[in-house]
Design goal:
mainly alpha, 7 helices, elongated
């Protein structure tokens, strides 16, 4: 407590326990609370049941606790890629990109509309070089 690191040490311990529980979630389909305590190097008591229940509530574990038999039944992890969700998200992104491309192409494709909006720009480009020389000569006279 003198170093004010007690809070940091407690948080580190909780993170190590959560990581261990995630690995157990991946590896096992059923495991006893006693085995979880052994794997996490914790003393078996009511605390391990509380820790597992909190991990389930927080979404770290996808499991159910059988309190009578003191066993944790790990539920099947839903494979996101087995569903249609990624395909729909990907199609939505592709559609957005294609709409962006189409609108950019249309903006570049119709320059004649800008010429109709600004007809004075067309007139300026129609001046032939001889007129420009005359204008420059007239300015030099002043």
């Amino acid at each position: 407590e003198k170093d004010k690191l007690l809070n940091l040490i407690n948080r580190l311990q909780q993170n190590v326990i959560r990581t261990g529980l995630r690995r157990i979630n991946i590896s096992y389909s059923r495991i006893s609370l006693e085995d979880i305590a052994t794997k996490l190097h914790l003393k078996y008591s009511q605390d391990i049941e509380f820790i597992v229940a909190k991990a389930i509530r927080d979404g770290v574990l996808n499991a159910e606790i059988d309190h009578e038999n003191k066993i944790v039944n790990i539920l099947e992890n839903r494979d996101l890629y087995a569903s249609q969700e990624p395909q729909h998200a990907y199609e939505k992104r592709i559609e957005f990109c294609m709409n962006l491309y189409t609108s950019a192409t249309k903006a570049l494709q119709y320059p004649h509309e800008t010429q109709q909006l600004y007809p004075e720009m067309e007139k300026r480009s129609e001046i032939n070089p001889e007129e420009i020389f005359k204008m420059v000569d007239e300015e030099d006279e002043f």
